[in-house]
Specification:
7-stranded mixed beta sheet; alpha/beta; two-stranded antiparallel ribbon; 11 strands; 8 helices; disordered C terminus; DJ-1/PfpI family protein (chains A, B); homodimer; INH-QAR (chains A, B)
Chain lengths: 230, 230
């Protein structure tokens, strides 16, 4: 576990964030940067070896699947170009199904929603995911909603990559109050100023969207095409 | 180095990002998530051991100070509660002064600007930093500017923590064109939607600002007070 910098006066949260090969670092570090102020974060992986993200940078787990606490306030899954492999990993899915059966909040950012879906945790729940992947949700039992953060009962999901910061603040507000979330937002100086209006297909237009789909398709392994990177 | 997911048709960048104990993960992962599409990122530290961030989570370096390429397109320093210790680390400062003498762009997010200043790299340059630390810049020779991203010749700085995403996109646009930056912005789904207006002292108001200053003061070690965490 990582040591908490806990806000005074709140009941600390117990959070598990799943690491798997090819996860996207920012999907996880966005909410981790919010929730680290609110309790203990377990970075959970199959082994204690560093886990390589889809950008190549490696994060060190704090516990294995087996050693992760059984009762969690928050269970979280990031997305990444390794998502499709993770969706076929029975050990990861069994872990998520087990902890998800008792977790207070079952959550994801980006394509992490597809992994929750593969673990059977989104059946009948509204969810968001990366803009390129909404069509993949219904086959997993989820109802896609094009929204930055979607809350349906105790399932809370964020859109692609950078949505993890908005997601983290919404989750913290829900679990420990708006004042806590605002305090963390201030310490993180979260008053974003995107230099361009290009964060969605609608803003970016069809030409840039085609280029993005081609690039992401080349980077994401599927059953038919090998991964662009090991 | 981490393997690139390089955008087609651009000349890859050589980027060094400094890791030191107590850096803030999101300060670094924001721009890393942008720049990983544009070349090779070296995560540089004194040794190859994992480096513990101020949230407790550990990132694995890809090279030591000695092994870092001598000629860089981008030299980058994140902030964090370990900033004040890093400002007194002669080995880190000598590394920054050396690479900074030849780097194409000399850059920081959050309190990383103070470390660049301590290395003598901001003398006479306009710079931004975390909102709580602007008053510390003049003693280091820099001219504080309250702006999310500040560009002064080849010095480019971002404000606190989350400003690293805006900073990364501005930097990429400057070095490899607006189309590259917009493409990455789209893949990162960067269309932020903060749930509250609390990202600056002006928005958050004086009561929350006082609480934030007290919390950050307790977490950041100074000469007079020991660190709140190891």
């Amino acid at each position: 576990m990582t040591e908490p910098l806990t806000l005074p006066g709140i009941e600390p949260l117990s959070v598990a964030m799943l690491l798997y090969p090819g996860f996207t670092l920012l999907d996880l570090i966005g909410p981790q940067s919010v929730l680290c102020w609110a309790g203990t974060i377990h970075l959970v992986a199959k082994t204690m070896e560093p886990v390589t993200s889809d950008s190549g940078a490696q994060l060190v787990p704090t516990c294995t699947l087996a050693d992760c606490p059984r009762d969690l306030d928050v269970l979280f899954v990031p997305g990444g170009f390794g998502t499709f492999a993770a969706m076929q990993d029975r050990e990861l899915l069994a872990f998520l199904a087990d902890r998800g059966a008792r977790a207070g909040s079952i959550t994801s950012v980006c394509s992490g929603a597809l992994i929750l879906g593969a673990a059977g945790l989104l059946q009948g729940y509204r969810s968001t995911t990366h803009w390129a992947l909404h069509d993949a949700l219904p086959a997993l039992g989820a109802v896609p909603v094009k929204q930055r953060v979607v809350v349906d009962r105790n399932r809370i999901s964020g859109g692609g990559v950078t949505a993890g910061i908005d997601f983290g603040l919404v989750l913290l507000a829900q679990l420990r109050g708006e004042e806590s979330a605002k305090l963390v937002q201030l310490m993180m100086e979260y008053d974003p100023a995107p230099p361009f209006a290009a964060g969605t297909p609608e803003q970016a237009g069809p030409a840039l969207t085609e280029r993005a789909l081609a690039l992401m398709g080349a980077a994401a392994p599927t059953a038919d095409a090998p991964p662009a990177r090991a």
